[in-house]
Fold these 3 entries.
Entry 1:
Amino acid sequence: MWGPPLSFSPTTTTTSSHGTIYRDEYDGGVAHTRLTVHTAGKLKVAATNRSLSMGFAVTRTSRSLVAPSSPTTPAGETLPLSSLDRVPGLRHLVLSLHVFDGAAADRKGSPARVVREALGNALVDYYPFAGRFVETEGGEVRVACTGEGAWFVEATAACGLEEVRHLDHPMAIPKEELLPEPAPDVSPLDMPLMMQVTEFSCGGFVVGLISVHTIADGLGAGQFINAVADYARGLPKPRVSPVWARDLVPDPPRMPAPPPKLELLDLRGHTVDFSPDYIANTKADFFASTGQRCSAFDVCVAKTWQSRTRALLLSGAGSFTADSPVHVCFFANTRHLMLAGAGAGFYGNCFYPVTVTCGSGEVAAGEVVDVVRAVRDAKARLAGDVARWAVGGFAQDPYELRFTYDSLFVSDWTRLGFLEADYGWGAPTHVVPFSYHPFMAVAVIGAPPAPKVGPRVMTMCVEEAHLPEFRDQMNAFASAAGK
């Protein structure tokens, strides 16, 4: 689960030694995809597009397709996708911004030109990214290895990154200005990758990425971006060799099911930074209580789920009572379970939705360590659940998700490899994901801009009536750090 842009206006920001609390009001409360598909235009456009936002001008100076730098094999072949790649819900765009201050190296030259050349080299190894999605007569999605290339936009910004706080929350430049406009004559959902590199006056730059989840999961996309970065730094080949091998992913029989009902939710956003001290203290409490270890991810999931559940109960959510079940779902990497030892280099979708279901009263009334235990118990069942799914052992497909208000979906962006991608100017100081959808309550775990440390939890998961209580619950968690 990686989504459309949001617009918001900040109200207040509170900072302490324990964490930073951001109080946001999102315009309309719904995430909207505002990508315009051009229906006319040449393959390479030399036009200039200038936009002014809050006094900071962004000018797009070049748009073109970047093809593989040398012939690829198998040229012209159509590649089948795995059963997971073809999950209908994955045919969506994943948007992100990657901020580089350029201070870690004395490298000269244009970052946009360096990244463009490196992209062409990486597309030789990862040639499906240079193709197009097509459908067979039976409606099955495949990748046509056309070699046409990825869409690449060069741009400049009339300011330094310091002036826009390295795109820290709230962003001073709308994300639409830093993400690539779609290529002409091609649906964005048919092009695996689009990229924009915006150079700032300070020497820093921002890489804006739009990819289609169908071709790669988060780890796979991170692997590809690191391959581009490897070439940009002058390596003769990527450190990780790509593996297609979509046929290794199990393809169990599936029961026919109607498409999920997507009810639009009027969601509001809230963002909190948790300090490493609080995370460490909670992990220590869990160890003292259970004799087992847990991760920062477990703590973030548990507290966010608990805060949201308390908000729904205390604020009143229709017929929502202490007996009502609540669900939290996150996505576990399963390369070690599904690929029979061939997981190294695999960049397709290879994950399993881990769902935890408890009574809302149990989640709301328990200690954080109790909720962490429920999360850990579900993770412990992963191997067995995957094995059962692989032989068709579930009456209901676990990949057919429930998009209802009683369900929270969590996405973790901290271990995908994006924070390590170095194009020769150092690792990014900030990665900004946009994994939000108007039909699902979402929490994204990321990181604040360097040198800040600790997890940042970015949410779009409650409606207006439940926002004040959700804020109070999450803010109390941040403020309790170290106590």
Entry 2:
Amino acid sequence: MEDAVREEQGFWSDGGGGESYDFYGVYEGHGGARVAEVYRERLHRVLVEEIEIENCSTGGVGGAAGGGGGWERAMKRCFAKVDEEVVSGGWCWKENGAVNTVGSTAVVAVVGGDVVAVATTPEL
């Protein structure tokens, strides 16, 4: 099977007795299950790092105006970092500098408080 799923209840809390957030992810591997497994094991952990960075830099994950831009930036950076881990970690076969053979698509959701943040990644 080349697909993987992840559910992490309370994967992040905004601290100080604030909201707790849950993570849901579905990953589809192409050309092998290993990339989907990497996403399943890493994406939610990297996302926590990016949420923490965004929270520190904007005064809140939703951004100063609460428009959700912080969630978008955190998700984009998270996908980019995990993609780079997959490529540099040797899980992708390369030919002439191009990634071939394996890849993944993913859809993830973070739910908590008044936030439902959903993101997808194109095939790696």
Entry 3:
Amino acid sequence: MKTVAAISSLLLLGASSVSAAPVTERQIQVPTEMDVTNFSANTLPHGTGAFISFNIAVPGTTETTTCSYSDQSSVGQLPSVSMRPCDDPAVEWEFRQDPSQPGSEGRYRVVVTYAYDAPKRVGGFHEWPATDFPEENFGSTYATFYRGAPDFVITNLS
């Protein structure tokens, strides 16, 4: 009987020390970059409409998704696109041209955010000179086309 009492005491002592251990939060690695591929943007010549599309992957995760926008109202210039979800709503994005400064056209910018450990979110941006989005003449109309590199890395995440 003494053996059973000693084992019961040890089990109770062990159980109390386990329950006193602090609960630790799981550690999820904060992403340090986002890889963008197949970026394209244009308006329709001889019509109304704009299209912006790209794929995004977050290295070190299983996250890959497509982000896109289209409208039937843009003429000549690409529109500003307010923050919107990608196919996977954990990734959101926006696109705009910054205001022009005297003597220069404003830069274009895409901002991307990723909810890596809800509610934690990280975001960054990529910007281009206006020369990467030339307005091209099609006789009686103009259209804007992205002519820069289709693949790039966003590394300024915070």
